[in-house]
Specification:
The structure holds two protein chains of two kinds. By secondary structure, chain A is mainly alpha-helical. In chain A, 76% of the residues lie in helices and 0% in strands. Chain A has one domain. In chain A, helix 3 packs antiparallel against helix 7. The longest helix of chain A has 39 residues. The radius of gyration of chain A is 19 Å and the shape is globular. Chain B has four helices and six strands. Classes of the chains: A mainly alpha, B alpha+beta.
């Protein structure tokens, strides 16, 4: 796994070509785009698991959300920070309040809120309920982030990779980007499984104590 | 498939999702003016009331062969291929600012055709390619 990311970084930093207008600053893309994708994907997973949790009362669902949230918030932060490092040389500004950037910041606060609820409530059932509701409300933010660049005028450019049309990134850049995607997805999965195991043990201990 | 309790929870959840989705949709629609980061030249021309003292942003493409430099003073035309607006600006521009590329200017309108910018931001598009490929594309065009 770490090999994939290592190889991906070497590829994106040294082997892949510079961009025709942006030059070398395009290399930030190889970290920025997969991080943003994972930030959204992980929140979607937390939201869906919260829905299953509230409606069907599947016991492991809150543990999934709880283990995923710190990974998601990390990628959100990476996405915002690399985005701002990229914005300065290309747009000429670190941060603007356009729809894409603002909605991404809101996603960060949803993650933060979700995590704080788990930390703040000592009672598991209460924490579970409030955090699930938070993540379900946060789900509405996801399509807003995704389509903000199409619905409104934003400084942020529209997506280069869409389901409906061929990507507008040259294949020599698409290869390292895909490697980074795969590497970071595997990284998240491994961290998730480790955290999930811990959460499961904590959950069992909590129930033993409260019997 | 599910118990009675689970079924009612599913129904409540779906209903509340639909209602809150609608509420958010309506809020965003009414906020449209504030959500957009910049206006295109056509949108400015079509606007009925426009405040000259309020700071606004205009965005579009820098018209080809429109950039004129006089010492620190920069004049160029922002176009959305239907309407145009003349922009003057004093100061440094981002590296990616060039003719035929996207731009967002922040400042005040003098009238609907004339804009005084205080800040220039470059807007790039979603196309990424190596310089060699761009040259080949240019040749074939």
């Amino acid at each position: 796994m770490s090999f994939i990311i290592f190889f991906g970084i070497i590829y994106s930093l040294f082997i892949s070509p510079p961009d025709y207008i942006q030059g070398d600053s395009v290399r930030i893309m190889y970290v920025h785009v997969p991080s943003s994708f994972l930030a959204l994907g992980i929140f979607a997973t937390i939201g869906v698991s919260s829905i299953l949790n509230l409606t069907l009362k599947i016991k492991i669902m809150p543990l999934i959300g709880k283990s995923l949230a710190p990974i998601g918030i990390t990628f959100t932060l990476i996405s915002i920070i690399t985005g701002s490092l990229w914005g300065k040389p290309t747009w000429g500004i670190w941060w603007v309040w356009d729809a894409r950037l603002t909605s991404m910041l809101i996603l960060f606060f949803f993650y933060l809120f979700y995590i704080v609820i788990w930390k703040y409530f000592k009672n598991f059932e209460k924490a579970n309920k409030f955090s699930s509701i938070t993540s379900i409300i946060g789900l509405f933010n996801l399509p807003i982030i995704k389509y903000s660049v199409n619905w409104w005028n934003t400084l942020h450019q529209p997506s280069s990779i869409t389901l409906t049309s061929p990507p507008t990134i040259h294949y020599s850049m698409l290869i390292p980007l895909s490697i980074m995607f795969i590497g970071m997805i595997f990284y998240s999965l491994i961290i998730f499984l480790m955290r999930y195991k811990t959460e499961l043990i904590k959950f069992k201990l909590y129930h033993k104590k409260n019997k | 498939m599910f118990g009675k309790k689970a079924k009612s929870r599913v129904i409540i959840l779906i209903l509340s999702l639909i209602i809150s989705g609608l509420i958010i949709f309506l809020i965003l629609r009414s906020l449209k003016e504030n959500v957009v980061y910049f206006f295109s030249p056509s949108e400015i021309i079509n606007k009925s009331e426009i405040s000259l003292s309020k700071k606004i942003r205009v965005g579009g493409l820098v018209k080809i062969n429109s950039i004129q430099k006089k010492e620190n003073n920069l004049t160029f035309i922002i176009t959305d291929l239907k309407n145009e607006i003349i922009v003057t600006y004093e100061g440094l521009v981002p590296n990616l600012f060039s003719e035929g590329k996207g731009v967002v200017a922040e400042g005040n309108l003098k009238d609907k055709k004339y804009f005084i910018a205080h800040k220039i931001l470059a807007k790039h598009d979603e196309n990424y390619m190596p310089p060699e490929v761009e040259k080949i594309l240019e040749k074939s065009n």
